[in-house]
Amino acid sequence: xxxxxxxxxxxxxxxxxxxxxxxxxxxxxxxxxxxxxxxxxxxxxxxxxxxxxxxxxxxxxxxxxxxxxxxxxxxxxxxxxxxxxxxxxxxxxxxxxxxxxxxxxxxxxxxxxxxxxxxxxxxxxxxxxxxxxxxxxxxxxxxxxxxxxxxxxxxxxxxxxxxxxxxxxxxxxxxxxxxxxxxxxxxxxxxxxxxxxxxxxxxxxxxxxxxxxxxxxxxxxxxxxxxxxxxxxxxxxxxxxxxxxxxxxxxxxxxxxxxxxxxxxxxxxxxxxxxxxxxxxxxxxxxxxxxxxxxxxxxxxxxxxxxxxxxxxxxxxxxxxxxxxxxxxxxxxxxxxxxxxxxxxxxxxxxxxxxxxxxxxxxxxxxxxxxxxxxxxxxxxxxxxxxxxxxxxxxxxxxxxxxxxxxxxxxxxxxxxxxxxxxxxxxxxxxxxxxxxxxxxxxxxxxxxxxxxxxxxxxxxxxxxxxxxxxxxxxxxxxxxxxxxxxxxxxxxxxxxxxxxxxxxxxxxxxxxxxxxxxxxxxxxxxxxxxxxxxxxxxx
Length: 540
Ligand code: AMP
Description:
Layout: H1 2-5, E1 12-16, E2 19-22, H2 23-39, E3 47-51, H3 56-67, E4 71-74, H4 81-91, E5 95-99, H5 102-108, E6 119-123, H6 125-128, H7 133-140, E7 154-156, H8 157-160, E8 178-184, E9 192-197, H9 198-211, E10 221-224, H10 231-243, E11 247-250, H11 256-266, E12 270-273, H12 275-288, E13 297-300, H13 307-317, E14 320-326, E15 333-336, E16 351-352, E17 357-361, E18 376-381, E19 388-389, H14 393-398, E20 400-401, E21 404-413, E22 419-424, E23 429-431, E24 434-436, H15 438-446, E25 451-461, E26 465-474, H16 482-489, E27 501-505, H17 518-539
Parallel strand pairs: 1-11, 3-4, 3-5, 4-8, 5-6, 6-7, 10-11, 12-13, 13-14, 26-27
Antiparallel strand pairs: 1-2, 8-9, 9-19, 14-15, 15-16, 17-18, 18-21, 20-21, 21-22, 23-24, 25-26
Bound molecules: adenosine monophosphate (AMP).
């Protein structure tokens, strides 16, 4: 990291709601935090939890823990207590760095004594903020500051940094030393930690640098809205941003209006996000107007980018919106739309980044590689692919075939090597003997002029086995009923793909990183079905 930002010491590294930190200051804070962690016994083999939103503490703590040779364990501050406990137990963290926000602290403070967690380092939110408080406190909804007990378990961030800032050098093998435990797979039982080595993370940064030749080192401003605790932001906003000496514009929580105002105020040039964020920004921008012309490149990832959304966003903002594909297990970037003049194909996530091979394997026999144009499971090889899951030898074994990572995603490669995603294997709807891909239905829904966002899931169906149901959020100021939209779909889908119902909602559920959440809708529908069944039995 030091090497990447040499020469940029006087340039801003971070803007947090108007408070700036230079790269020189950032480096010195990292050294002091690293020394402080080493004084607490942190070193190779230690796990350090970070339970923080996007703020300067996250950036300092992340690089300090890595410099000390420890493994960073990312916690989502919105986890409920049960999830925090499961991750703390599984990862074995001995240190947790968190905020003095009452809600977050209430959950974190239940962990010492029940897990290996020995020390909680508490960062004061007010210390990271500029002086114009009232409005910002409102935004952050953090007027309730935690009362931290007077106990040796707790230590303040200031106290951690009270030292000479001269950490002991640490020797590591970058290929085997685990830099990050990235928890994933929470939708299917207990989450498991993808072990990402220093080599994996640095490789993905170098691959990203190779991919964007138009980037101007030391001159870009990176809008970091998606949370760093998710792998996409960790690499594409933070690690990549730092590697090109960009100024990171940190936004601690997603609020479309705050983001648009931040764009107008700070004039960022790069904007990685998930599709729902771009869509929400468009809605607000219609209303607020304001100049967003500073944006040069948007990098969409994490979920399908509807072709309609890409086109509207580019047309309204003038920002080129490119799409990438990857997962926690691949640090995450594996494919991306080309930036070097090769064509960008509509609906494709592009070509593999350098050093990466994509194989599409037979859904019936994963040892067989499918020819171009045929669908199958996407498998990935490359320097960014994890070595395995922490303490999960069986899952690790099952997630590789002949050395390639099995992604659980269905797709195909065209004759020019472009990857097209079809869907996730577990989202495919088995409808009357046919495979119905929710994404095909979603793309058709996005073509309706009133549709802002859409999710399709499969529900049990007495007649067809499973049948698709669609959930839709409408664009502000438009009107359409579920029946209107069904009528529209008849011209865009085959009979089997037509959803059983289109339900209009004011909003759709999202995951922590902002992706639309099929899981939440499945759970809701399952609860409704159970309730229905209970009523039927009662009346019988
Ligand atoms: P995560 O590990 O939470 O980053 O989730 C990874 C999953 O997100 C992948 O396995 C894909 O199913 C999905 N995903 C990532 N990028 C895209 C994309 N560009 N289009 C569609 N799905 C994506």
